[in-house]
Amino acid sequence: MLLAILAVVAPSRRVGADPFVPTDLSTVSPPEAPLTPIAPFVVVGSWNMADGHSETIFPAGAGVLAGGGLLVSWFNWSGGQGWIDRYSGDGEPIDRIQVAGGSHFDVTPSKQLLTSTGRFALTGTRLSTHPAGAPASAPDGTYYVATPTATNHYSAAGVLLGSFPSTEAFDVAVLPTGDLVYVNQPSGGPVLESTITVRSSTGVLLHSWVPPENAFSVAVDHLGRIHVGLNWVSTVAMYTADGDDLGTYGVGSGGDWMSDLAVSPTGEVYAVMSGAFSGVDNRVNRLIDPAIPIVDEATPNNGTTAGGAAITLRGAGFSGATDVLFGSKAATSFAVVSDLEILAVAPPVSGPSTVNVFVKTATGSSISARRSWYVYKAPAPPDPPTGTSATPDDGSATVAWVAPASDGGSAVTDYTATASPGGSVCTTTGALTCTVAGLTNGIPHTFTVTATNDVGDSVPSTASSPIRPTTCSATSTVHPFLDVATAFPFCSEIEWMSATEITTGYPDGTFRPTSSVTRQAMASFLYKFEGQPATTLTEPFFADVDEGNPFYPAIQWMAETGLSTGTPQPVGKPRFLPANPVSRQATALFLWRNAGAPDSGLAPAFFADVTGGTFFAAVQWMASSDLSAGTPNPPGKPLYLPADAVSRQAMAAFLYRYDDLP
Question: Could you tell me whether strands 341-345 and 310-316 are parallel, antiparallel, or unpaired per DSSP bridges?
Fold first, then answer.
């Protein structure tokens, strides 16, 4: 088992000659200033990886995807198959890539997957092979593979572009200048024999130095700083591209040692912690530099490709922000509200996509993380308006609504309110109310509203509750009948009777609301209410109603449907008694039978004067259905007055309420 060295981190040593030639380190002068811990990075996240500890299979390499997310390669010490796991930037497992070609010690993402054994698509499909070694992606899309003897330069398509000698290269990274920085680790040497070198892209040695502890890994951040992994002590030493010491920072706890580190394009550090030897779980620790801004939330976190949405960014370190980027595109505008908040306007993009929102300051850029994602969607029609309501008037209704929760990413330009029945409409260009005209007084109407933007129309809103346009309003001067003024108690009910042509009143223009309803008029009202259905009776059912009676079809229908059986006679057919007034209890019976004789559910008796008998169930149903409240009879129960004749105004009220039943 390899032993972790937990000694205090010592200063780096500069090397004056090519590091691949053995050097007497005792003759090397220390750097101008000792390497001191500066702890610029702090752990902001940590997660256990999918696989536990093992002495033969452990996480060996890491690489950060440009769009966010981490790749971790697994090395099989026994020579068997390895694999690569893909995680989101917040540690959520995405998939496992089974890459053919044996175990994998290192992985670097570019436009494809570069592993220690070959070049692959992110699906694991092999694209080409190259000599085993440490891969590194260059900003121009090319890549390098450093082997113990040479560094090979390849195009993005895997074509060899050039090669130069390198010795004992263990890991490699590319600086923003295109120069290469190596960790060189001679086999079998003492711990301090690891060497860091910087070479040009053609292999010319530029700088070299010895890190204070044994080093396995190297990465470069967005500011060009070099991060060298002092793996056995779980510490990172930072340098400039010239080798100047910038300090050290710990990478947090977990595992036995740090097997690799990776740095995102925005400066976020991922340390892969291996638990291969002590039996603890393998972990990934995510670190950031507190000096760089942090985006914790983008609200709203989505908008359309047209851009223009006002976004509130919340986090920390925003003072002095120089840029706000949606992916790679600059915000249309932004304003720093405080160190904790920025208001930004999303720029337009060419198509639907998900991007990270970055805030840049002089000290660096915020990191790529799920919490700062912004989703661009194609513009869509608006959501439907809500809360649709209507207020009736004479032949019209004023409709009101609430604006849609979302405009679909394109501003609402119009609203249309539509009446049912009839289809009469009104439109507005922004107001949340309009008046629909051309309605029939007394008829129930509902209303829906659609919202329109440049993409199209919303689905209709939920319909309003029904209302009945009416002349029976305080401002109306139109009377439904000469003897029914707009302030008359049953004005709306009588107006409805006229509008539905259940009655046209008398030839002199009156309704005569207090007159009694005859049985034949009652039959006519119900018959017209039901749409004047045809009957199949071929001869008169009642002895006193023949084909010459103007109410004959209605009375025949009453008989055929069982609404009335008439008054039995000792001999012959029953009589209907068409000219007799209809009683209130008979009216209840006719309506109850027409409704299907439902159970009222009331017990005991609702009215003081109807406690049983032939009409009891029907009268109880009149009360339970709110067709009749009776006549007040304090302090006792109300009276129904069952034997009284029904007035025309009461009949209008009964039928009007009956029409509103579900």
Answer: antiparallel
- In one letter, which amino acid is 238? M
> What rounded mean pLDDT belongs to the chain?
84
Whether residue 513 is found in the same domain as residue 615: yes
Sheet with 414-420, side-by-side order of all strands:
425-428, 414-420, 446-452
Residues 200 and 284 in one domain: yes
Structure tokens at 143: 């890549």
Is 474 inside any structural domain? no
- The three-point CA angle 311-316-320 to 5° equals 85
Residue 483, amino acid: D
- Residue 19 clears pLDDT 60, i.e. is over it: no
CB 588 within 8 A of CB 579: no
Rounded Cα gap, residues 553 and 160, in angstroms: 100
The verdict on 215 and 321 lying in the same domain is no
Which of helix, strand or coil describes residue 254? coil
Domain assignment of residue 653, given as a range = 491-659
pLDDT tens digits for 366-385?
Answer: 765 667 889 898 888 999 99
Distance CA 212, CA 375 (A): 45
Give the number of domains in the chain.
4
**pLDDT confidence of residue 148:** 80
In which order are the strands placed within the sheet that holds 269-274?
A: 42-48, 283-288, 269-274, 257-263
Judgement on whether residues 392 and 274 belong to the same structural domain of the protein: no
Which residues have a Cβ under 8 Å from the Cβ of 159 and sit 6 or more positions away? none
Enclosing H/E stretch for 494: helix 491-499
Cα–Cα distance, 291 to 483 (Å, whole number): 86
Question: How many CB atoms lie under 10 A from the CB of residue 323?
Answer: 12
**What DSSP character marks residue 371?**
G
The CA-based dihedral angle spanning residues 576, 579, 580, 583, taken in that order and rounded to the nearest 10 degrees:
80
Return d(Cα 131, Cα 129) in angstroms, integer. Answer: 7
Cα-based angle 330, 332, 333 (whole degrees, multiple of 5): 105
335 & 257 share domain: no
Alpha-carbon distances of 310 from 344, 345, 346, 351, rounded to whole Å: 6, 5, 7, 19
* Residue 328 neighbours by CB under 8 Å, 6+ apart: none
**DSSP of 169-197, one letter per residue?**
EEEEEE-TTS-EEEEE--TT--GGG-EEE
Higher pLDDT, 602 or 448: 448
One domain, residues 509 and 398: no
The predicted-structure confidence for 557-572, as pLDDT tens digits, reads as follows 999 999 999 999 999 9
> What's the CA gap between 273 and 263, in Å, rounded?
15
Q: Is 650 exposed, middle or buried (0-12, 13-18, 19+ CB in 10 A)?
A: buried
88, 68: one domain = yes
